[in-house]
Amino acid sequence: MMVDVYKNIFKKYSPTQNLMHSFVAGSMGGITASAATYPLELVRTRIAGMVTPTERGIWRTFIGIIRREGFLGLYKGLSPTLIGAMPFEGVRFGVYDTLKSIFKIYTESEVQWVARMAEMTCASSAGMAATLFVFPNDTVRRMMQVQGALPDVGSQKKPYKNFIECYVDTYRNQGFGRFYRGLSMPCNIMVFLSCNCFPCKGVAMVR
């Protein structure tokens, strides 16, 4: 896990771990993972949105994007993704480590079920906090990913030049609530994933 790699690097220079180390390690790990897997995420979004119904499968969609939009088309919407990945993982790991230290009496309890429940509560709270913090950025990212496959005709709205323009235009025309449209499902998913990810990671590291 890239977060642990960065944490180990920080330990060489500062053996004492604190909240800032967790935030920075989580942020850098999130950026690394997002940049490496972004083309696949873009293809998945295009397929799920069915904006190119004539293309079937991952490989055909992948090639189709390169033909129509060039190789850089695979990284359309990357800027908001990286900007979102940095605070998302940073907030998630930072909040998790902070809550664990605050409720240390429970997370390190000798009663196993109490310790597991405390860790799951800290993890789910961290996942929810991170999702709420970066969801507007995810909304803009998805809007930019999908727009690349829309036909450029007079009746269609012109594609956004960058994510800042997308932010401003969306806020002006649809209001702040548009950035949180569809929040419930991703929030529930992230709470579940975080609730299982952190405790399982801790058990695996112990073993």
Could you describe the 3D structure shown?
- Helix content is 75%, strand content 0%.
- The chain contains eight helices and no strands.
- By secondary structure, the protein is mainly alpha-helical.
- It is elongated and about 60 Å long.
- It has helices spanning 2-13, 19-49, 58-69, 78-102, 104-107, 112-147, 163-174, 184-206.
Offer a concise description of the structure.
Helix content is 75%, strand content 0%.
Q: What keywords describe this structure?
A:
elongated, 207 residues, mainly alpha, 8 helices, 0% strand
Give the proportion of residues in helices. Answer: over 70%
Shape: elongated
N to C succession of SSEs: HHHHHHHH
Rg over CA atoms, rounded to whole Å, is 20 Å
How many individual helices? 8
